[in-house]
Every structure is written in structure tokens, then in C-alpha cells.
């Protein structure tokens, strides 16, 4: 449920590919190779149409093109699904468009589709979700530590157990004497390099289990200690009591829910997040780069990968992340087959 939790899930179909012998090179090199493969697949489709055999070869050609895609792009996550659920939905749409798996592909045991996201967004939140496909999944680590921008609407006078509007109200305090000047006057305390206590309802783990899962189960959970985080900019956009709107740009591992809660406490009241939108992650913006669901097609993603390749720094290396690394700040790699399902709170469970 964390708004800016740095977590990533990498999904793999049951079709496992012969990994192309690509050296751990810069992201631009990977993007160039991916573009060449995608163009070859597109040419195969065009040739099939000219010969009148499109009906029999279009699906294999689409599958070839899909498996050749490699790089990083962005999708628009709506309110409702978790980031992992959205990723599963994206993967299923792409596999269905390519006709995978099918009898002609099941013989090719080493064909695989690898796809993942670089930074969890709350189920109640909407906005930019950065996605890596193919070798682009190795780029996601940099997305987790990069800057993110949010528009958050907070509600004064109410505290909840989840620190947002989806939780149970745990406290109510007056707010009628709080002014716009009062809020603006304390924002500097939450700007720069600060210490922040993460929410109890989060993807952070204790003994291998997410704190949110333990909380839902009714277990006693101690708050994680405060940790250093960075807020690059913080401003009040609107104040219409009890609601206030913040524009926040922050680094990795930062929780907007904790920020809003802490602001409420600093004002001698309490507060929770009513609405949250991630407008930017790294170089990807909601308005310019995030693909809506009706554009989750192989061709649209191929075009987006080509456009987005210019946004990434040339020195960005494609390095594999370590599965044992914490999902608080770095990419967590989990590979699941089509026979596996997602459990509560983005936990992948194998049947």
C-alpha cells in the first residue's frame, strides 16, 4: 500500500527463452538491439500480408516481435489495482495479442517474456508506473532510487491506521484554527534531507513478511525506525479546509502518507491522504509518457520504447539486481510462470 515504496516485481511466462548473449552494456545499446529485432519482426508481418499468408503467420510474427522488445517505458496506473495486479494485466494482454502460449510455441521451451515495474504505487493511488521489458528489467533499479513527483490531497482532522482514506479512523482532532499560513510555515521542516518513520501498512518486511500483511492479520507490529529520506521540493497548492493539496518531489524510499500524517501532527491536529497521483518518475511524466490501458499493444509499446530510450542516460548500465536485496530501495526479482497467481498485498504465490 505504500505510495512511493521502492519495490519491483519481475514476471516471466512459462516460455523460457534462449537468452541472447548480450553483454552487460549501457541501456542505449540494449535499446538499439531491441529496436532492430522489433523492426525485423515488423518486416515479417508486412511480408506475410503481401503473400496473403498473414492469417497463418501473424501470431508467430507478433510473438517474435513481443519477445524482442527490450527497454523501459511507462503506463498509467488507475485507482484500484495494485501495481503487481496491473503488471499481470499488462502481461496477459500482450501474451493474448501474440497468441502465446500456443502449441507451436510450447515446443520452444526457452522463449520467455520478462516484464517488471520499478516502484510500487498504492492501490488507492494513480499515476506513472515505470515498466521494464526484456533486458529493460535490469534498468529498473535506477528507477527506484530516482526522483518522483506527486500531487497529494490531505485531509485534516482525521487519522487512520493506514495513513490514508482506505483505513479505519483511529483519531479525530479539531482543525478549524489552522490557516494556509500555518501550513506553509511548517513545510520547510519537511524539505531537504530529513528522517522519516515508514507507515506500518507498507511493503517493508519483518522476518520475511510484509508489515501490511502482519497488520491485517492482527499481529503486533513495531514501527520501523526513522530513516533518512530526501525531499527536493514541497509546496502547498491549495487549502480549502479540511483539505490541502501538496506538490512533492522526493527521492526513493519516501512515503507521502507519512509526510501528510507528520504535517497533521506538526499542526497539533492529525491528517491522512485522501487522494494521491504520481505525476513523474525519473524522466517519465504522466501527461507525456504513460500509456493508458487501451494502448497496451505490442506496436504501441514498441513505439514507446523507441521514444523513451532517448530519456535514459547513456551510461545507464544493464546490471542484474540481486534477488536477496531488500525491496525497500532496490529491484526485487521474482519470476513466475503462467500457472502462478498473485496473493494479497502483491505477494507472489506459487501453486
Structure characterization notes:
The chain contains nine helices and 17 strands. The two termini are 24 Å apart. The protein has helices spanning 27-51, 54-68, 83-97, 103-106, 140-145, 180-186, 211-216, 256-266, 298-308; strands at 10-12, 71-77, 114-117, 126-133, 148-156, 158-160, 169-172, 192-196, 205-206, 209-210, 227-240, 243-250, 271-281, 284-285, 290-291, 341-342, 348-349. The relative contact order is 0.23. The protein folds into two domains: 58-146 and 282-313, no CATH class; 147-281, Pseudouridine synthase (2-Layer Sandwich). The strands form four sheets. Strands 1, 2, 3, 4, 5, 8, 11, 12, 13, 14 and 15 form an eleven-stranded mixed sheet that branches. Strands 6-7 form a two-stranded antiparallel sheet. A two-stranded antiparallel ribbon has the order 9-10. The model is unreliable at 1-10, 12-31, 48-57 and 317-351 (pLDDT under 50). The longest helix is centred in the N-terminal third of the chain and has 25 residues, at 27-51. It is of the alpha+beta class and 351 residues long.
